Amino acid sequence: MRHDYYQYTKEQLVGNGPKLPVIVMKDNAQVFSSMAQEMVQEIEKNNGEGKKTVFICPVGPVGQYPYFVDMVNEKKLDLKNVWFINMDEYLDDEKRWVSVDHPLSFRGFMQRNVYDKIDPKLIMPKEQRVFPDPENPQAVTELINRLGGVDICFGGIGINGHVAFNEADSSLSPEQFLDQKTRVLEITKETRTANAIGDFNGALEDMPHYCITIGMYEISHARKIRLGCFRNWHRAVVRRAAYGETTSDFPVSLLRDHPDINLKITEYVAALED
Question: What is its EC number (predicted)?
Answer without folding.
Answer: 3.5.99.6
